[in-house]
Structures are given as C-alpha cells and as structure tokens.
Amino acid sequence: MAKVVRIHSAGGPEVLTYEDVEVGAPGPGEIRVTHDACGLNFIDTYHRSGLYPLPLPSPIGLEGAGTVTELGDGVTDLAVGDRIAYSTGPIGSYSSERVMPAAKVVKLPDGIDTKQAAGMMLKGMTVEYLIRRTYAVKPGDTVLWHAAAGGVGLIACQWLKQIGATIIGTTGSEEKAELAKAHGCDHVILYREEDVVSKVKELTDGKGVPVVYDSVGKDTWEMSLDCLQPRGLMVSFGNASGPVDNVNVGILAAKGSLYVTRPTLMTYTATREDMVESATALFDAVGKGLKIEVNQSYPLAEVQQAHTDLEARKTTGSTILIP
C-alpha cells in the first residue's frame, strides 16, 4: 500500500488526513512514480482551505520528485529508473507513489537531486515566468519583491541578480532581512517598522518602480500600487494575507495609468513546450549558481504541522515532505 494525504472537507490543517491507497498500473501515456520528496507550497493551503476549491474528497499537492518505476503504453521519452520532477500537477503529489501523465514531468539533469528538485520546481518555475515573461526584467531595472525571504523570494533575488536588476525586498524581521540580503537583495524594508512606500520612493529618487511582485494579497495591495511609477505593472501572484476583493479599477487611473495582472503558473506552463522551456531555464539558472535551499523537511505523516508552520510564516526558503 502507498501513503497519500487527502482532504475530505475544506478547512484548517486538521482536515489533512494520512491514508493508505492502492496504486494501479499506469495507463496509456502514463507513468508510475515513487516519490523521494514532495514540495510544500502556499497554493496547497489555498486548496486545503477552499479558497481554490477542489472536488472533494481530493488528494493534495502539485509538486514532487522521484523515480519512474513503470511505463504505460506509448511512453517513449522516459525509461524505468529515470529521475523526474514536476510542479503543475495533476494534484496529488502528497503521496509515496502515484500514477500520472508522462507529459507532465521533466527529467532531472545530473547535479540536481530529487529532494532539491522537490523544493525548487514550482517556486523556481514561478520565478521564471514572473521575471522573464509576465514582466521581462532587464539589466538596470529596479523591482519591488514582497516576502523576499520566502521560498519564491530567495530564488527570485538570486535570479534577478543574475539578470542585473536592483532588488528592493520586504520582510518581517531582521533575521529574514539578512537572509534576503545574503541571496542578492540590495535593499530590504522591514514592513512592520518602516513605511514601505516612503522607503521605495527614497530608494528610487521619487520615481517608484516599474514592477511590483506581490504574493501577499490584501494587506499589501494599496501599498504596492503606491510604489509603482506611472504606467507601472502590479503583478499580484498570491494571497498569503487573503484575496484582494472589491477593487475599483478607477484607482489605477488615479495612481498613474497603472497595469495589474493576476498570473498563474498553470497558464504559463499550459503546453508541454512552455513547461519544458520554463524548467530548462530554471535548470540553466541553477547551473549558473542559483542556490536552492531546502530549509525545512517534515515526514509526510506530519503534514498538518508543516501547513501550520508555513501559514505562521515560521519557514524560510523551501520546504519538503518526505514520504
């Protein structure tokens, strides 16, 4: 029997149940995978809570890495024993084994182990589409990144530094500020102690930034808009503090003909071509020195505690679950 985490109702971490499951043989175009590790991501808490509803009961988790153990008919570009990883589902990565579409996984290059991969694919590919495609950051650009010491933030700071950008990051503590700086963040604003808008304007000679990357949501919405220069782009890609509701689009005109987008990794990797291109760009960045730091690891059976710690902002960098 394999182990799997399911939810039978939406709610807090207590709705996550650790269960036994039979894993069948892969069908046409599918593979059977044994997971070495599963990635823990904020989107998992949205699925669990019902913010992003799932048909219940449901497995959970979008990211995993492991080894191919069986091939279904028609799978020709993978072999038993290949090390693979994925970050866009289908949902159900919180498991020791599973069957899934071969088209949804990529082979891991030498030098990247499966535990590292489980902590980097979703976050790293998120950074890829945000800084290369949602807004193509150029050398010399100054960007504002909220939650700069989080899993996505630490990857973003390093990758933006590879591009040649200047990074202004926000964090909630001195400890997290030092972590962000160590990963390439040029200026860190302690949002609990400093006025973020005033500090951004000071650092940009009053101009503001051309783009804000905001995964926090409602608590930073207005602040983020006020940090933008005229015709700047607000990239709202998460809801850690809750969703942004009841927006009057007229505020975008009043604050300087601003643009707003709410992108998702699923859209930017909807085709296999886009998914492979995104993963390849991530692997290349790692090859150039981008470090993926898995700072927390929990047994899969302790998934409730992992979700509790993530939502309490007790984690930094990436977190994995070990089946």
From TrEMBL:
Domain Enoyl reductase (ER): 11-321
UniProt entry keywords in alphabetical sequence: NADP, Oxidoreductase
PROSITE patterns to which the protein is assigned, alphabetical: QOR_ZETA_CRYSTAL (PS01162)
InterPro entries: ADH-like_C (IPR013149), ADH-like_N (IPR013154), ER (IPR020843), GroES-like_sf (IPR011032), NAD(P)-bd_dom_sf (IPR036291), QOR-like (IPR047618), Quin_OxRdtase/zeta-crystal_CS (IPR002364)
CDD domains: QOR2
UniProt xrefs under Pfam families: ADH_N, ADH_zinc_N
MF terms (GO), sorted A to Z: mRNA 3'-UTR AU-rich region binding; NADPH binding; quinone reductase (NADPH) activity; zinc ion binding
GO cellular component: cytosol
Source taxon at top rank: Bacteria
Cross-referenced NCBIfam families: PRK10754.1
Protein name: Quinone oxidoreductase
Protein's organism: Hwanghaeella grinnelliae
